[in-house]
Amino acid sequence: MDFSFTPEEDRFRAEVRQFLSKELPSDWTFLEDEFADDHTRWQFVIEFKKKLAVKGWLTLSWPKEFGGVGASHLTQTIYNEELAYARAPGRDIFGTRMLGPVLMLYGTNDQQNQFLPPIASGEIQWCQGYSEPNSGSDLASVQLQAVDSGDHFILNGSKMWTSRAHVSDAIFLLARTNPSAPKHKGLSFLLCDLASSGISIEPIPNLAGMHYFNQVRFDDVKVPKGNLIGAKDEGWSVATALLDFERSGIEYSAEAAKTLEELTAFAKTEKRNGMLLSESESVRQSFASLYTQIEVSRLISYRIAWLQSTGAIPNKEASMGKLFGTELQQRIAVFGMQLLGLSGQLTSKSRWAPLEGLILKQYLLSFSTTIRGGTSEIQRNIIAQRGLGLPRK
Amino acid sequence: MYLDLTESQQMLRAAAKEFLASACPLQVVREFEEDPETHRSRLWDHLVELGWTGLVIPEQYGGLGGSFSDLVVLLEETGRALLPGSFFSNTVLFSLPLLAFSSPGQNDHLLEQLVSGEVKGTLAISEPSGSYHFSDVETRVSPSENGFMLTGTKMFVTDALISDYFLLAAVDSSSKDNPLGMFLVNSDAPGMEITGLETFTNDGQARIKLDSVCIPASHSLTQVSSGEAVLSKTLEWASVAKCAEMLGCAQAILELVIAYTKQREQFGRPIGTFQAIQHYCANMATDLEGARIVTYRAAWKISTGTTSEMESSVAKSWVSSIASRLVYLAHQSFGAIGFTQDHDLQLFTRRLKAGEIMFGDEFFHNSKIADFLGL
Ligand SMILES: Cc1cc2nc3c(=O)[nH]c(=O)nc-3n(C[C@H](O)[C@H](O)[C@H](O)COP(=O)(O)OP(=O)(O)OC[C@H]3O[C@@H](n4cnc5c(N)ncnc54)[C@H](O)[C@@H]3O)c2cc1C
After folding, report:
1. What CA–CA distance (Å, rounded) separates B75 from B13?
2. What span, in angstroms and rounded, lies between the C-alpha atoms of A181 and A148?
3. Cβ count near B30 (within 10 Å)
4. SS3 for A153?
5. Element of type H or E holding B193
6. Which pLDDT score is estimated for B40?
7. In the prediction, which pLDDT does A243 show?
8. A159 CA: nearest ligand 1 atom
9. How many other CB atoms are there within 10 angstroms of residue A10's CB atom?
10. Residue A58 CB coordination number (10 Å)
């Protein structure tokens, strides 16, 4: 085995790092989930994303024929790692990592020409309309109705937990086009302009007090037939064909590593009971254990990326990476709160909040990471059934 | 980056699997455990024939010149098969440090004898305190006529009863700057008293009492590097090698669980269809995925000769911590049958636990990691 990066990969990492330290304000302390909280901040995010687009980085691993750089999964992973570590904005998961690859696989030439360039340039922000009030883990049960009506479909129903819908231009949807077919067989994958009439977007403030997700209602919304991706009623395969995009999950360990460094600095300056926190053996043990777990998570992610770079589809490994990485983030958040003690209660608005209230934000957000993007239980089901071959019945 | 075994490692693995499946079924493991005296040297000639005793020793001594990563591949298989006997101690605890720290020409003949299997060696560091900290070494060394004299007590010395040599740590309290020394001691030197210890794997650990044992000056292994350097490297290699064995053992446990839960039925269906059981398996598999990659990363670091202490401690910390979780989940999945002596699971359980304790557990390595982190 060889765990080293090539000099070229190292150079690229350094270039990304340098770019981020130059372009990101030194007091940038915001987390992904609060980027879309306020208009000025979101404008900055969009401008930043466009700068990344100019570098070609938004579409780093897209094939050249679709306007990408054609970089390897490993290079993409390095890029994702650096952005996550810097907590930089501009990681356009919905557009570049989900919809883009789907269009490359299932879109017609016309659809590719129409939809891919604005994703690559950072012009258009997409959001993901899969979940509904009554469909979460059981995604194939979605009920948003799409009725065939000549040259368009008419949509009625609602999508739930739609991240960033309130700042997005368009949404990709899983909708039911054939209510009488078995649940996996009656779905279609549709693209819809959020400015269409009949759409209303209602914020759902989350536990951390941020406006990140929304409910999107559809009331007789018209979607042109040209926005159907793949065949009608075959949306399930389209929606689940996202296997080829980078899914190493490197963000989990990168974000965690950054936080652990900040907590280390805190522990080295704060005293309790006459000694530095960092001098307590129980504190040291916790740090070492978390550091170890971050290394484990990072290496699992590198392995996923490496497997992908060989053309393999590491399903089981990706589920392990997500499961382990998100549960690790919770353990770090809990430890961080423990270390901060009473001061952990102070929000980012308080001038006395340690680390600008970051640990509290991460703690509150940590309740969502094991749910979004497939819950931990669903990941375990995948590992056990698809990975280890345990029987379903 | 290349995160798979090389072709020659895959061949090594396949050959090891084949050999172990036929020569070392679990019945052999049981016989060893029940009566180590009788079975002690069983299999040894085979290992020599396969070239395993010379795997990491350069060709000039008759070995195969393999890397530490190659060794890890092999140890994963011996761990999976619970190979009893002194392969681990002889190769990892003795051959590796001897090779790395002998001065030019110092131990050429011994190295050849190790390859040919004529002699065996092991490591003697721990003492009644059971500690791996250098500062807990109390065995004393003093100059004597033509060499050194050693007095003290060593504990938990693996395979002591069948080894010809010990690589032994002792302190010279008269030397200020570098009191820790490492010495080669013959097992039949006058003044040595070796007594077997009753451990829960009956794996041939022993206590050695040294009473004014004299050795020649040429038996110091600290002519090139300091005693601390020899000891810390040896322990580091041992801890990563132990991870590899544990990995194989843990993987075997998971496979036993999967096979059993697919077949055992309750409530009219295989218990492997129950989600609680599936999630136990997913947890074990995820823990193992991480264990394998951190172990191989540490081995790669060691093989390339770059600084590796931190990575090695990360590996042993993690593998130790997952081992202790994994055995409970496995036993839970088996129900009462797994709690019997007849069932094979317990053979693996006890050895995995012993591995967790050896060469520093999670607590020990976390302490080192915290030091590395500057805490
Ligand atoms: C912050 C955040 C952002 C999100 N953003 C989006 C978005 O942009 N677009 C979008 O479409 N969706 C989004 N989601 C929704 C997300 O995909 C769902 O929350 C997720 O799929 C789980 O569905 P649910 O919340 O309905 O929980 P449920 O499916 O009702 O699950 C509740 C509990 O039951 C367990 N459970 C369910 N089924 C099983 C099973 N088969 N075996 C074992 N346990 C099971 C779950 O694991 C969980 O513990 C977001 C969610 C969050 C929290």
Report:
1. 9
2. 15
3. 15
4. strand
5. strand B192-196
6. 78
7. 59
8. 11
9. 12
10. 27
CB B127 within 8 Å of CB B136: yes
Structure tokens at A139: 């995604």
Domain A126-243 indexed as CATH 2.40.110.10:
yes
Closest CA to B370 of A85, A253, A264: A264
CATH architecture of A247-387: Up-down Bundle (1.20)
Predicted local confidence at residue A228, as pLDDT: 98
**Catalytic pick among A81, A234, A246, A317:** A246
Q: From A159, A371, A380, A386, give the residue whose CB has the most ligand 1 atoms within 8 Å, as the site to mutate.
A: A371
How many whole angstroms separate alpha carbon B21 and alpha carbon B29?
12
DSSP single-letter state for residue B4? S
Q: What's the CA-to-centroid distance between A141 and ligand 1, angstroms?
A: 13
Per the confidence metrics, is the pTM higher than 0.90?
A: yes
Q: Which atom of ligand 1 is nearest to the CA of A131?
A: 11
Q: Token pair for residue A366?
A: 């940590």
What is the share, in percent, of chain B residues with pLDDT greater than 70? Answer: 100
Whether residues A264 and B375 touch (CB distance < 8 A) is answered with: yes
Which amino acid does the sequence have at B162?
Answer: I
CATH superfamily, domain at A7-91 = Acyl-CoA dehydrogenase/oxidase, N-terminal domain (1.10.540.10)
Enumerate the domain spans of chain A.
Answer: 7-91, 126-243, 247-387
Contact A380 B278 (CB under 8 A): yes
Q: Which of A274, A261, A267 is nearest to B375 (CA)?
A: A267
Q: Are A200 and A219 in contact (CB under 8 A)?
A: yes
Residue of chain B with shortest Cα separation from A261 = B373
Q: Mean pLDDT in chain A?
A: 95
Q: Does A247-387 match A126-243 at the fold level?
A: no
- In angstroms, the CA A223 to CA A235 distance is 15
Q: Give the three-class secondary structure for B102.
A: coil
Summarize pLDDT for A22-34 with one digit per residue, the tens.
999 988 889 999 9
DSSP per-residue string spanning B326-346: HHHHHHHHHGGGGGSSSSTHH
Mutating to test ligand 1, I would choose from B273, B275, B279, B280 the residue with most ligand atoms within 8 A of its C-beta, which is: B275
Residue B9: how many other CB atoms lie within 10 Å: 18
d(CA A314, CA A299): 14
> What token pair was written down for A245?
């995009």
Q: Which amino acid, B337?
A: I
Q: With cut-offs at 50, 70 and 90, classify the pLDDT of residue B38.
A: confident
Chain B residue numbers touching A384 (CB-CB < 8 A):
278-279, 281-282, 285
Size of interface A-B (CB pairs under 8 A): 150
Amino acid found at A342:
L
Flag if A299 and B317 touch (Cβ within 8 Å): no
Residues of A within 8 A of B5 (CB-CB) are: 1
Atom 24 of ligand 1, nearest CA residue = A136
With contact defined as beta carbons under 8 Å apart, do B300 and A2 qualify?
Answer: yes
- Which residues from A are below 8 Å from B318, CB to CB? 292-293, 295-296
Tell me which amino acid residue A10 is. Answer: D
Phi, psi of B150 (to 5 degrees): -120, 140
Answer yes or no: are the C-beta atoms of B113 and B282 closer than 8 Å. no
Q: Which of B271, B254, B233, B229 is nearest to B330 (CA)?
A: B254
For A262, A290, A313, B129, B355, the CA distances from A269, given in Å and listed in that order, are: 11, 20, 46, 35, 37
Closest by alpha carbon to B123, among B79, B156, B78? Answer: B156
The closest residue, in CA terms, to atom 1 on ligand 1 is: A368
Mean pLDDT of A3-26: 97
Nearest residue (CA) to ligand 1, atom 23? A136
Inter-chain residue contact B273 with A390, CB threshold 8 Å: yes
- Confidence class for position A244, pLDDT limits 50, 70, 90: low
User: How many residues would you count in chain B?
Assistant: 375
pLDDT at A246: 74
ipTM: 0.91
